[in-house]
Amino acid sequence: MKSSSINEKYHSLYRWSIQDPINFWSEQAGHFIKWMRPWTDVLKKDDNKTHAKWFVGAKLNVSSNCLDRHLIKKGDKTAIIWEGDDPNDRKQMTYNELYIEVCKFSNVLKSLNVNKGDRVCIYMPNIIETAVAMLACARLGAIHSVIFGGFSSNALKDRINDTQCKVVVSANEGKRGGKNIPIKGIMDDALQECPSIEKVVVVKHTESDANMHTGRDIWYHEVMKPASDMCAPEAVDSNDPLFILYTSGSTGKPKGILHSSAGYLLHCSLTFKHVFDYKEDEVFWCTADLAWITGHSYVLYGPLSMGATIVLYEGVPTYPTASRYWEVIDRYKVNTLYTAPTILRTLVGMGDSYLNDSTRESLRLLGSVGEPIDAETWDWYFSKVGNQKCPILDTWWQTETGGIMLSQMLQTITKKCGDNVKPMFGIVPDLVDDSEVLTNEDTGNLVIKEPWPGQMLTIYNDEKRFQDTYFTNSKNGGFYIPGDRASYNEKRTLRITGRADDTLNVAGHLIGATEVEAALIKHEAVAEAAVVGYPHPVKGQGIYAYVALINKYQPDEKMINELLNLVKTEISGIAKPDVLHWTPELPKTRSGKVMRRILRKISNNEFDDVGDTSTLVNPSIVELLVNSRTQYGG
Ligand code: WT7
């Protein structure tokens, strides 16, 4: 196809999706999803546009869309290529084999009294059984909540208690970078304070034994053996939830983002097909852990519903060496690599020699997600990884949006970082000012003006927080607010520049400043703490914590270790501060509000222009902070 006509395809489809959304989505839904019952309405909006219901009245099953419908034509096609942390651990599964495994595990869950609408938590390493557990929940219409295997027992406990699940699926151990992670032990700690839990299914992933609690814990391999491989998929309503996934907000505890079945599946299938232009017989590798939304949408649901072959990798990019990704690409002839800037920056820092023993010639396309990609990293990705022949798609989206919202499109792409980003079909982006009014300025806060099928349903257990967090007030017609800043470039295409709120994007993971503060002030020595982000060469943003100790305590080595470990056990290793800056007190306004603006300036080394300090109770504290360097890290 000539590029002008392909070009036309994106533009004409986009135009159709905006001018005639009902017919557009009706056509796409028929094309991308196999339904058990048709809909009565494509879209029903409520009065303030915060709850759009898609494909009302219809029924489907997400797991049978990902498995059963491929069996006749593609039963023997490889669905998952699994690569373990140890380069000698490898496994592949065809669509037939995956289907049987999922049916069996669905029957196991049924025998544990898991029914439609029940929640199941999945606390696992990045292994095939994690995908099986997710698809088995989907088969029964149960709601899964996958929790990252690197989270602490406290973080796990909070999530389990919020979901009130009866069953957890877990493993004895995980493996990362050559180390064994005691997943089961961490979970056992959490379960001491999780009264809703009745049963735990444990995958024996490593040779180590596990301390099994009689009556509660059962081995996966033992219950799978006798399980039947016949399990009819449950007919689920379009707007019945498929999963809950926790993500950090700027304040308060993590939010349980609730996603629908039909709209979500449609959004990630359609974007997978159109953005990555997936072709039969290609191998697609999204490096995200299944526990993040990128893993849900572009390791599992999008690719499998399109019958693709995916790579699932358990380990880290630098183990045993920084050549690991490139070896995997050559070994499996990966065509598309979809990864995060923080991973690329880590690899850039290790030097180019790690690329020498691979050709990466199978690559056709590269993708980036999770944070803004800087020009230097983009250049390296383009010239070194992709040998100057693979376009790079920078995709912007969020846990809440379900799938890609803005991206370069293959048909309209230019070989320039951040250029010509397009909205996905049906997505109407715009900018508002700080008072949520549409603005003609080139820079502002991003809003999405119309609902789209992959949009979250609500925050689990907290509808009020959903309304308060994500929507402009009714005079603007309930636009969705992602919480990002964006600007138009000279071609009037959008570029995302960073967060507009106090969430930090650390190595592609959102962390709430207040979550880290809450962990720090649990220490008896800490009087108060404030956390802000600062530019970090590898992680994008680093965590900078200002800590005021109670008088009798010293900011010594021991204190530093205690504080860092506290954050690790309260949240996870990802949330550990990179810098601790000791201070006698925090700069506050007369009304007691901590002046984060000033703290941000100091941590960004913008000492000359800290701005107006006249409203502070104690302006001298600012000078003290600028001049004091009694800190850890930085
Ligand atoms: C936040 C969402 C998207 C799945 C992984 C993260 C930032 C994400 C980009 C990008 C600039 C990006 C935004 C967004 N972000 N992708 N391509 N360019 N920023 O999902 O944990 O829900 O985080 O990540 O700030 O709001 P998440």
Provide tags for this entry.
single chain, 634 residues, alpha/beta, Luciferase, domain 3, GMP Synthetase, Chain A, domain 3, seven-stranded mixed beta sheet, five-stranded parallel beta sheet, 19 helices, 31% helix, disordered N terminus, binds 5'-O-[(S)-butoxy(hydroxy)phosphoryl]adenosine
SSE layout and pairings?
Elements lengths: L2 H17 L1 H12 L8 E5 L6 E5 L2 E2 L1 H5 L4 H4 L3 E6 L6 E5 H17 L7 E6 L3 H13 L2 E6 L4 H11 L3 E5 L2 E3 L2 E3 L1 H9 L7 E5 L13 E3 H5 L11 E2 L3 E7 L7 E6 L1 H15 L6 E4 L6 H13 L3 E5 L10 H9 L3 E4 L1 H10 L14 E5 L5 H11 L6 E4 L10 E2 L14 E2 L5 E4 L10 E6 L9 E2 L3 H8 L13 E5 L5 E6 L3 E4 L2 E4 H8 L5 E11 L3 E10 L7 H14 L8 E4 L13 H8 L16 H8 L3 E3 L1
Parallel strand pairs: 4-17, 6-7, 6-8, 8-11, 11-12, 16-17, 16-18, 18-19, 19-20, 31-32
Antiparallel strand pairs: 1-2, 3-13, 4-5, 9-10, 14-15, 15-25, 21-22, 23-24, 24-26, 26-27, 28-29, 30-31, 32-33
This protein binds 5'-O-[(S)-butoxy(hydroxy)phosphoryl]adenosine.
Commentary on this structure:
- This protein has 634 residues and is of the alpha/beta class.
- Among the domains are: 436-499, Luciferase, Domain 3 (Luciferase, domain 3, Roll), CATH 2.30.38.10; 505-633, 2-Layer Sandwich (GMP Synthetase, Chain A, domain 3).
- Helix 14 links the parallel strand 19 and strand 20.
- Helix 7 packs across helix 8.
- The protein is globular, with a radius of gyration of 24 Å.
- The protein is built from 19 helices and 33 strands.
